[in-house]
Automatic annotation (TrEMBL), chain A:
Pfam families from the UniProt entry: SPC22
Domain of life the protein comes from: Eukaryota
Cited InterPro entries: SPC3
Organism: Citrus clementina (Clementine)
Location of this chain's protein in the cell: Endoplasmic reticulum membrane
UniProt keyword Transmembrane helix present: yes
GO CC term, one of those recorded: signal peptidase complex
Any one GO biological process: protein targeting to ER
Protein's recorded name: Signal peptidase complex subunit 3
This protein's UniProt keywords: Endoplasmic reticulum, Membrane, Signal, Signal-anchor, Transmembrane, Transmembrane helix
Cleaved signal peptide residues: 1-26
PANTHER family for the chain: MICROSOMAL SIGNAL PEPTIDASE 23 KD SUBUNIT SPC22/23, SIGNAL PEPTIDASE COMPLEX SUBUNIT 3B
TrEMBL record, chain B:
Organism of this sequence: Citrus clementina
InterPro entries: LexA/Signal_pep-like_sf, Peptidase_S24_S26A/B/C, Peptidase_S26, Peptidase_S26B
The family this protein is said to belong to: Belongs to the peptidase S26B family.
Transmembrane stretches, start-end: 118-138
Protein name (Swiss-Prot/TrEMBL): Signal peptidase complex catalytic subunit SEC11
Keywords, ordered alphabetically: Hydrolase, Membrane, Protease, Signal-anchor, Transmembrane, Transmembrane helix
Length: 167, 278
């Protein structure tokens, strides 16, 4: 009854319960944080814009991304995954989301930045609909917690337009 | 010759840890927990300490394992002198004195072992079935056929490391870029956990074409897909990650990589369940 095994079992059960409870509380405490992130994306240059041999449009951009995401960090935040996606409609597709650039922010001190970059992933359409196409640039962030629930949100910036001709 | 039986109830800690000491002729004969006593004896709750004087001819064997006191002492206030049948005793020592050790061992095999092993069998069944209920319940709630997955590769570092656990959900919401999905590729038996970087949703059918990439990989996943496959479709997706628990999956990884440990662990647990008494 008061054997070693019994006590070890009781201790282990208690420890696991407490640990699970602490993880749950840590995850829930993220809800108390009300972040106020801000971001701005500027298209500095259309590097090139062409139709691929098999018919898909591809464009290369240079972007300037400025953001302050410091308020997203809490004590349960392991890292922030951020990316910029171009979103647009075409006659065939109700929604196209193409990721252009992404980054991992490991700590709060790197969460306020301004970066000058060309697109990291290829911006290719499913077809050839990109000429004078209006599109949104969206900064998404995914909060990866140390433990618990993952959060995601975005800032949509609209009113970008691609040139009328290939170049 | 039995002259006296002393039953002493001792309380240690909370309710479930009660002792009953049974002394025969002043020698401690048995220790039993209160729980056992209640099952096997008719035990009066209010009594704290009772002394029974044992009349030489006052006890007789009824139903060959039960000793019933027929003439009861006056100082025994907790039993009923009128009926004379208020206290059933059943323990090895007395039986041994009456029946000898062969009878006792037959008795103990007959009564205790079968009941105990049945009880342990049921306990084991309860553990297994409750684990199954939790798993199937999670499947129902999340809508995913495997609601919990262990991260096996390093392709999502530093976000997810080998041995972390992901909770999956399979909701009706359309899949969007940035979400971490678990997908199955034809011809691969291990599902992959990667992030969606491109989505094309068709206007007419509502079907999606998805491209994924591991955060830690340099290129997208077209290389991983089946030959000639450029996009993932909805049917490949097993679920999207909604929650995260670090390190817990290491147990699974160790057990799949070193099966001996798994067998040792299962054996030890089984042995513990079978041999445990309380």
């Amino acid at each position: 009854m008061h054997s070693f095994g019994y006590r070890a079992n009781a201790l282990l059960t208690f420890a696991v319960t407490i640990l699970a409870l602490m993880c749950a509380i840590a995850s829930l405490s993220d809800n108390l944080n009300t972040p106020s992130p801000s971001a701005q994306i500027e298209i500095l240059n259309i590097n090139w814009f062409q139709k691929q041999p098999h018919g898909n449009d591809e464009v290369s951009l240079t972007l300037n991304i400025t953001a302050d995401l410091q308020s997203l960090f809490t004590w349960n935040t392991k890292q922030l995954f951020i990316f910029v996606a171009a979103e647009y409609e075409t006659p065939k597709n109700a929604l196209n989301q193409v990721s252009l650039w992404d980054a991992i922010i490991p700590a709060k001190e790197f969460a306020k930045f301004s970066i000058h970059t060309s697109n990291k992933y290829r911006f290719i359409d499913q077809g050839h609909n990109l000429r004078s196409k209006e599109f949104n640039l969206t900064l998404h962030w995914h909060v990866m917690p140390k433990t618990g629930k993952m959060f995601a949100n975005k800032i949509v910036m609209s009113g970008y337009r691609l040139p009328e001709d290939y170049r | 010759m039995i002259k006296s039986i002393v039953l002493t109830q001792k309380e240690i800690g909370h309710d479930s840890h009660r002792f009953v000491l049974i002394m025969i002729n002043g020698v401690i004969s048995k220790r039993k927990t209160k729980k056992k006593i209640r099952d096997e004896y008719t035990w009066h709750k209010t009594i704290d300490r009772a002394t029974l004087r044992w009349p030489t001819d006052g006890a007789q064997v009824v139903k060959h394992k039960q000793l019933i006191l027929t003439s009861l002492p006056i100082n025994c206030s907790w039993c009923n002198p009128q009926t004379g049948l208020s206290f059933g005793l059943e323990f090895g020592d007395l039986i041994k004195r009456k029946m000898g050790w062969i009878g006792e061992s037959i008795e103990s095999v007959k009564s205790m072992k079968i009941r105990d092993s049945l009880f342990q069998f049921i306990t084991l069944g309860m553990i297994v079935s409750s684990a199954l209920i939790i798993w199937k319940g999670l499947m129902c709630i999340t809508g995913s056929e495997s609601p919990v997955v262990v991260v096996l590769s390093e392709s999502m570092e530093p976000g997810f490391q080998r041995g972390d656990i992901l909770f999956l959900q399979m909701s009706k919401d359309p899949i969007r870029t940035g979400e971490i999905v678990v997908f199955n590729i034809q011809g691969r038996d291990i599902p992959i956990v990667h992030r969606v970087i491109e989505v094309h949703e068709q206007r007419q059918s509502g079907e999606v074409r998805i491209l994924t990439k591991g955060d830690n990989n340099d290129v997208d996943d077209r290389m991983l897909y089946a030959q000639g496959q450029f996009w993932l479709k909805q049917e490949h997706i097993m679920g999207r990650a909604v929650g995260f628990l670090p390190y817990v999956g290491w147990a699974t990884i160790i057990m799949t990589e070193k099966p001996i440990i798994k067998y040792i662990l299962i054996g030890a647990l089984g042995l513990l369940v079978i041999t445990s008494k309380d």
